[in-house]
Specification:
alpha+beta; 22% strand; 3-stranded antiparallel sheet; binds zinc ion
Length: 69
């Protein structure tokens, strides 16, 4: 079950919320100011998969040192 990150447009608070499928189309209420003026941020969910695949390939991109002897 995915976590989504939201930002409150009223007070600027960012918070995470785990949504069920029945709640996927709804915006959550800000836990700080109880406003419904919130928007979803996709950065965290997207970067999680990108970072996992990127870190494995970038590790071997540098030329090996100590090969000449
Ligand atoms: Zn708020």
């Amino acid at each position: 079950m995915p976590f989504y990150e939201y930002r409150c447009n009223e007070c600027g608070e960012t918070f995470e919320k785990m949504l069920r499928f029945s709640e996927a189309g709804q915006l959550p209420v800000c836990p700080t100011c109880a406003s419904q003026n919130t928007q979803k941020k996709l950065s965290k969910v997207v970067s999680f998969g990108a970072a996992a695949s990127g870190s494995t390939s970038s590790g071997s991109s540098c030329a090996p040192r100590g090969g000449f002897s």
